[in-house]
Amino acid sequence: MTHPTNEPETPLIIRALRGQPTPRRPVWLMRQAGRYLPGYQRVRSQVGFLDLCRRPDLSAEVSLEPIERFGVDAAIVFSDILLPLEAMGLDVEFDDRGPLIPNPVRSREEVAQLQPFDPTVGTPWILETIERLCDALPRETPVLGFAGAPLTLAAYAVEGRMSKSLVGVMGLRWREPDLFADLLDRLAEATVPYLAAQARAGASALQVFDTWAGACSRADWERFALPPLQRVFGGVRRELGADCPPLVLYAKGTGAWMSELPRTGADAFSVDWRLPLAEAQDALGDAPVQGNLDPTALHGTPESVRAATREMLDGVAGRDGIVANLGHGVLVGTPPENVAAFVEEIQRA
Q1: Is 44 assigned a catalytic role?
Q2: Are 263 and 230 contacting, i.e. CB atoms less than 8 angstroms apart?
Q3: 306 is annotated as an active-site residue
Q4: Across the strands, what pairs with 207?
């Protein structure tokens, strides 16, 4: 895929995600809008989590807070990866223990009942939120869209309530592998128009989160998780053609087969903290990468955060295609001043 030449007006993050040189490392954080911020807490005291996701005015407000407070180089639309499951016919709830799906998918009949959906009808709020953010932000601060990967969506859909063992979804894999593959295929089919619609609404890059990819063996990942990811990335490219923005994959816990991830068709990769960022980029064939400070590092002191950030940056000195980020999302209870130290250290380097 060819990309436009490096132009000064192109946002730093988009240039980095295309593998182009940038005058400094662009930076954003996964879950940069969330419970650790006072503005988010104020909004959440007024509305429930799902109501917040479905209210474009409030979703845009909390999406903008980290831009205004820290000066990060991109806004990621505030939403949740599970909302497409609701549009496909599942009940999605959130409580103090996290997401809950009271009617999980565990049989052939339940899989068959999942419905394709039109994002303009099933999830219109995320599109309006992206439009609001694009209107509110300068050109140099792009909006990022996202979706859950088919495997990760399947994990929530089958488990109902997540557990570390994932015995529900992995049990389905072993009992009925064809049904498991069919479920992943249906989720991939729904994800393509969902991501394409976000790009048409104004998202300048799209990230697919595969948080539970590392629960698979390499063989199972190749057999079950890889084909639907290829369908997602290939399908979005076909939908958008020359207007397709950079497509990013975050596949947590896959360091053992990181060299296989480019087979998915993603343009760039967010990587967790288990490998040095340069080593991860080498394994990915010099593809653009995002990452990868351990999120727990932000629970130290501002001084220790700055030191860890410098060490991360020093490890990729002289390389192009680098976006500074965490190796996972900002953790609950992270001191905002430590997020500020992380961003400041990157932007002054």
Answers
A1: yes
A2: yes
A3: no
A4: 146, 248
Known active-site residue 135 = no
* Type of residue found at 213: A
Non-local (6+) Cβ contacts of 11 within 8 A are 26, 73, 74, 139, 140, 141, 142, 204
The 8-class DSSP code of residue 274 comes to: T
Cβ atoms of residues 283 and 302 within 8 Å? no
Confidence class of residue 8 from pLDDT cuts 50, 70 and 90? low
Instruction: Confirm whether 175 is a catalytic residue.
Output: no
Among residues 36, 40, 156, 250, which one is catalytic?
Answer: 156
Choose the catalytic residue: 24, 35, 223, 319.
35
In this predicted structure, what is the pLDDT of residue 164? 83
80 included as an active-site residue? yes
- How would DSSP label each residue in 44-89? HTTS-HHHHHH-HHHHHHHHHHHHHHH--S-EE----TTHHHHHTT
Angle between the 302-314 and 336-348 helix axes, to the nearest 10 degrees?
40
With 0-12 / 13-18 / 19 or more C-beta atoms within 10 angstroms meaning exposed / middle / buried, residue 190 is buried
| Residue of 36, 55, 73, 80 with catalytic role | 80
| Residues 289-335: tens digit of each pLDDT | 999 999 999 999 999 999 999 999 999 999 999 999 999 999 999 99
Q: What distance in Å separates the CA atoms of residue 79 and residue 130, rounded to the nearest whole number? A: 10
